[in-house]
Design a protein that fits this description.
Keywords: Coiled coil, Signal. By secondary structure, the chain is mainly alpha-helical. It has 7 helices and no strands. α1 (about 1-15) packs across α7 (about 225-350), α4 (about 55-175) runs antiparallel to α7 and α5 packs antiparallel against α6 (about 210-220). The protein is rod-shaped and about 190 Å long. The two termini are about 20 Å apart.
Length: about 350
């Protein structure tokens, strides 16, 4: 009965009483008559008075309710302070996580843009230069082979020419040994041998001056003169020796050229192998750099996602805390209002003679 009565008093006072306890009982009764809650309150007061209930019990009940409201408000304040502390700690944590994520993002972008990408470009350019050097190396190799083939063909042609010239000189010397009062036919045959020698020697050959001197000596000579024949034989022998020396010189030069050629090819092959070794080494570095770019990019994307998540969590936390703050303020105001009404009710009960209240 006491609890029901107290609740009715609180409800009635919350909806009907807007004046202070300083109002006279007559005015208060008139105000209560204006609402159903007030009428119910007056009716309960009348019943309490008719039943002879002690006012002190009603006062104790209202004071207990007032104390409950005070405890409830303190608990509300304590819980909200706890929630505020939790909110502040979470905001600090999320802001720190966002700051860390932003630092990681900035560092990762800096590493990619200013370190890894330039490094990859440098390595790719290095490989391109090495491959270009390899291509030039192979072109030089092919040119060396072609030049050597051409030089060797020229050498063989020159040796063949000189060999033919040697044979022609030998024929001429053999013919001269048979000449003593030569016939016209023999002279003609000898002159044909000289022409054969002439045809076997190119104009720019170093044998050409010897041949020219020999032809001058042999032209229109009387081969019956043994002195003339002796001079021609000496000239032919000198010419033959010159041809043999030329063959020897060119053979030695060819051997030296072949040796230099083989050394040059070996050098080009060594350079080609070295270029390939460097390309392989740079490719290893390039692969590692690309893998590093992938790793840092993956980390960057993760930190960007983390930053978005932290930002969303912070926004959600702020929204929830704002809603909870509104609920807290509304609840606190309700507690304060109910506490004020309870205090007014207490003052009213302590000042009113319930036996005089009539519905």
């Amino acid at each position: 009965m006491k609890t029901i009565f107290v609740l009715v008093v609180v409800i009635a006072l919350a909806t009907s009483l807007k004046s202070t306890f300083r109002q006279t009982p007559q005015k208060l009764q008139a105000e209560l008559q204006k609402s159903n809650y007030g009428k119910a309150l007056l009716h309960l007061l009348e019943l309490h008075s008719m039943a002879g209930g002690a006012v002190s019990e009603l006062v104790d009940a209202i004071e207990e309710l007032d104390n409950d409201l005070i405890d409830g408000l303190q608990l509300l304040e304590f819980n909200f302070q706890q929630r505020t502390n939790q909110h502040n700690a979470l905001v600090v944590q999320l802001n720190q996580q966002m700051n860390d994520a932003q630092i990681d993002i900035s560092r990762s972008e800096d590493v990619i843009e200013n370190l890894l990408l330039p490094r990859r470009e440098q390595l790719e350019n290095r490989i391109a230069n090495l491959e270009e050097n390899q291509e030039i190396n192979r072109k030089n190799y092919d040119e060396e082979v072609l030049i050597r083939e051409q030089d060797h063909e020229a050498f063989e042609a020159q040796i063949a020419e000189l060999t033919d010239a040697t044979a022609a000189v030998d024929d001429a010397l053999a013919l001269l040994q048979t000449l003593s009062n030569p016939s016209l036919a023999q002279v003609k045959k000898f002159q044909n041998s000289l022409k054969k020698i002439e045809q076997s020697i190119k104009p720019r050959s170093k044998m050409a001056p010897f041949l020219k001197a020999l032809l001058t000596l042999a032209s229109n000579q009387n081969f019956s003169d043994q002195g003339i024949i002796s001079q021609i034989v000496d000239a032919l022998n000198e010419f033959r020796n010159a041809i043999v020396d030329s063959i020897n010189d060119q053979t030695l030069a060819e051997a030296n050229a072949v040796e230099e050629y083989e050394e040059r090819l070996a050098q080009l092959d060594h350079e080609h192998i070295e270029f390939q070794r460097q390309i392989n080494a740079v490719n290893v570095d390039l692969t590692a750099t690309n893998n590093k770019i992938d790793d840092v990019t993956e980390f960057l994307n993760q930190r960007v996602a983390d930053l978005k998540q932290y930002s969303a969590e912070l926004q959600l936390e702020n929204d929830n805390y704002a809603d909870e703050t509104q609920i807290y303020n509304d609840t606190k105001n309700e507690f304060i209002r109910e506490q004020q009404i309870t205090e007014q009710a207490l003052a009213l009960v302590q000042s009113v003679d319930f036996s005089h209240i009539q519905v």
